[in-house]
Design brief:
The chain is an alpha/beta fold. Helix content is 39%, strand content 15%. The N and C termini lie far apart (49 Å). The relative contact order is 0.11. The model is unreliable at 9-13 (pLDDT under 50). The chain binds 5-S-methyl-1-O-phosphono-5-thio-D-ribulose. The record marks 170 as: Transition state stabilizer.
Length: 358
């Protein structure tokens, strides 16, 4: 039992990355999974910022949702006029935007909260209605994400046949979103529909989102999942066990270059070498037409401890130089298709991605 959190057993509650409980944001502490299921009660933007930065909540859509609630938490206790509340929304959104740089969903969700606040202020609502409407906007972002992911799953499943082996990297599942996930959504739908898919989950160094989160949530749901180390992907492909790869993404550039968890690029190259399709699943909120190419995507670098002493045991010499980028960019030529809630698009991505927004 955590000192600050509420511990629950698997039987008591279906896993949910975050939920508004009427008073605060209850956030599943993903650092503790799979061993402990602890919901942290978050009551301030600082707590939300800290949760995002330290991976208590992670995954592009989930951090956007958390940040949206964070904006509301920043204004709900203020006794202020609407113009003052609007200024505070802008300030908190700017602050929350500094929590992590790569996933564009974070900035998308914050922009949506800003835009809603500006529209409410222009409409001349009172302070109580302003606050309520911003809470509702955060709830809407969360609810829409669930609906969006189900649609992504429906489209993605059309690409898989009964008996397929499908490899995934990192965690783009229910834990990374409001529900279902993006890349993992077709596996949940396949289970519902009785379609037999064998999932291979890369463990995903350095902090093991594949082992701790993907293997965990799929196993909980009764999906057939096999955990492998990252350096085994080529071997299982060469055995003929993999018919498709599907991953999520933190940002898709206008030309179809895809930023995702470090190691994704290597998987894409391996897939191409084996003639295996490489699919990327994401909501439209992850597609950033304002970022022309993958080299324009800011790539987060994280603390060396994740590599030298992740999980409490030192596994590298003191003082060794470390490079720890959290994401890499897969060039568009490796991306067979991008699966969104509006359907499946293929190259040339400059045109097909733009058409999704028309
Ligand atoms: O560092 P993380 O765990 O936030 O990285 C997450 C990923 O790379 C996911 O694949 C991506 O955010 C898509 S989640 C639907």
């Amino acid at each position: 039992m955590s000192h600050t959190g509420i511990e629950v057993t698997n039987e008591q509650v279906a896993l949910q990355s975050l939920r508004w409980n009427g008073h605060q944001l209850d956030l599943l502490d993903q650092r503790l999974l799979p061993e402990e299921i602890v919901y942290l009660p978050l009551e301030t933007p600082v707590e939300v910022w800290e949760a995002i930065r330290h991976l208590k909540v992670r995954g592009a859509p989930a951090i956007g949702i958390a940040a949206a609630y964070g904006v509301f938490l920043g204004i709900r206790g203020l006794d202020a006029r609407v113009d003052e509340l609007l200024a505070e929304v802008q300030k908190q959104a700017d602050y929350l935007a500094t929590s992590r740089p790569t996933a564009v969903n974070l900035f998308w969700a914050l922009d949506r909260m800003r835009a809603r606040a500006e529209a409410l202020a222009s409409a001349g609502v009172n302070a109580a209605d302003f606050k309520q409407a911003l809470l509702d906007e955060a709830k809407n972002i969360q609810a829409e994400d669930e609906e969006t992911n189900r649609l992504i799953g429906e489209h993605a499943l059309t690409l898989f046949a009964d008996g397929f082996g499908v490899l995934t990297h990192c965690n783009a599942g229910g834990l990374a979103t409001a529900k279902y996930g993006t890349a993992l959504a077709p596996f949940y739908l396949a289970k519902e529909k009785g379609v037999n898919i064998k999932v291979f989950a890369d463990e995903t160094r350095p902090v093991l989102q594949g082992a701790r989160l993907t293997a965990f949530e799929l196993q909980q749901a009764g999906v057939d999942v096999t955990l492998i180390c990252d350096n085994m992907a080529g071997a299982v492909m060469s055995k003929g066990w993999i018919q498709a790869v599907i991953v999520g993404t933190d940002r898709v550039a206008a030309n179809g270059d895809v930023a995702n968890k470090i190691g994704t690029y290597s998987v894409a190259v391996l897939a191409k070498a084996h003639g295996i399709p490489f699919y990327v699943a994401c909501p439209l909120s992850t597609i950033d037409l304002n970022t022309p190419t993958g080299s324009d995507i800011p790539i987060e670098e994280r603390h060396e401890d994740e590599i030298t002493q992740g999980f409490g045991k030192r596994t590298a010499p003191q003082g060794v130089k470390v490079y720890n980028p959290a994401f890499d960019v897969t060039p568009n030529e490796y991306v067979t298709a991008i699966i969104t809630e509006k359907g499946i698009v293929r190259a040339p991505y400059n045109e097909s991605l733009r058409s999704l927004f028309e």
